[in-house]
Amino acid sequence: MIRIPLSRVLISALSALLTVASLPAAEPASIQTTQPTQPAGEQVQTVRLSVQPAAAPKPAMSIYLLPPLLDRLPGNAAGTYGIALQMMPADETDADRDKIEKWLKMASSVLPRDEVRNLLSRYEQSFRYAVLASRYERCDWDLPIRQEGINLLLPNLQGFRRLGRMLALDARLALAEGRLDEAIARVRTSLALSRHVSEGTFLIGALVGIANATVALEQAREVLAADGSPNLYWALVQLPDPLISMRHAMEYEQNWLYFSYPQLRGLGDLKLSDEQWNERARAAMNLLALAGGKDGSTAADALRALAAGMKMYPQGKQWLLSQGRSAKEVEAMPHGQVIVLSMMGQYEQWRDEIFKWFALPYAQARAGMEKTLRAFDDWASGPGRGNLAAVLLPSLGRAAFVHASLEREVAALRCVEAVRLYAAAHGGQPPAELGQINLVPVPADPVTGKPFGYHVEGKGFVLESIEGLRPRDQLRWVVELREAGTK
Questions:
Q1: Which residues contact 260 (CB under 8 A, 6 or more apart)?
Q2: How far lies 397's CA from each of 202, 280, 355, in Å?
Q3: Could you tell me if residue 427 is left (phi over 0), alpha (psi between -120 and 50 degrees) or otherwise beta?
Q4: What is each CA distance from 312 to 88, 286, 301, 320, in whole angstroms?
Q5: What is the pLDDT of residues 30-62, one digit of tens each?
Q6: What Cα–Cα distance (Å) separates residue 53 from each residue in 29, 254, 283, 458?
Q7: Is the pTM of this model over 0.85?
Q8: Are the C-beta atoms of 471 and 43 separated by less than 8 Å?
Q9: Do the beta carbons of residue 452 and residue 477 sit within 8 Å?
């Protein structure tokens, strides 16, 4: 279980971790990755994928990557997922985790099937309930945020992360044994789980959902590489856009403070007594102490709060004047009013400057978001050091990119499948450019908002997303088109 304050500290680190986790692993047979020499932290990973031309299945919409309407069940999935977590073996060791990570990075053709099967047998009941939960039409975690506020305990997100990886491993075993339909079914369960986990209240849950969905799509990519793989273009098109929405989570992230401190909301035009303003100032200072790991209960904490308040008062006066209030009005304010109005005013201004970009597609928001975050970092490390906004507002740029990179993965898979459709109708040859494909629409790159880079190379093609991106954020897939029956 994770408390909200800890989740805020983890957001930046988790976003960076998910970026690394979402990068494809070395696959010696069907999928391979290479890492050209780059400065530390700036590696470009190239995915090497070998696929066959494939026409659309008939009926065209016979394959689903989320439970279809006729298979969905009325009701709430949350309780059934709880049973799935309870059914997972509790004795997973570090050695087990190391093996699982190794197997997930291993080509299915060289997977130690007996050993993997033996481990997965311990998860049969957990998988059974996860499949059932994935079919429910909704997942309402019913978290008591309005009652608990900052003390709220979040669901077992690490458990869902573990369950998602085990489902991915089961999909990989199914591929190794040639059970394509079962592998696709596991991807379907994994993606539904990812969406349900992301429908919790906070951003950290959405990030765990994105991580699980990324791992699931890596298994979908393995499906494309299997001999006789069906074309998944229309299955990918049927996925929601975006696959995981962050709008709900971001709305709560933007407003979480007021569930615990409703008295700090809407202060601008309130007419309060001096003592009431001082009470609100103390609440804001207490929140600042909590964010710094102090509970405000000791004499030392009280002294620190007093010292901080004395420093904030003249700064607060200057800020209120800069916002258009008259000197006479500001001088007449009690100290508590000056402190709390300036603290909450700056917090809300920076909060909205950062969060407003999330209402736009990433490709449209990226430049403005990056500029805003640079300005915020400069302020938070300079004149705003120690301010409530500097302490509480998470760095969200990486989270936004992680979300966009998941959508890019879906779009890139659609591009590969569009080329497979074209090649099936043109003697196994790829198009000279993506614009030649007229059977189906070819998606743009959600990260850049422009067409993917594409060129024919050897017996296949290269698909890229590189424009304006740091090397670690780029996508480069080298795809070989092989004849049916070859590997």
A1: 149, 150, 151, 287
A2: 16, 31, 10
A3: left
A4: 51, 14, 16, 12
A5: 333 333 344 455 677 899 999 999 999 999 999
A6: 18, 47, 64, 15
A7: yes
A8: yes
A9: no
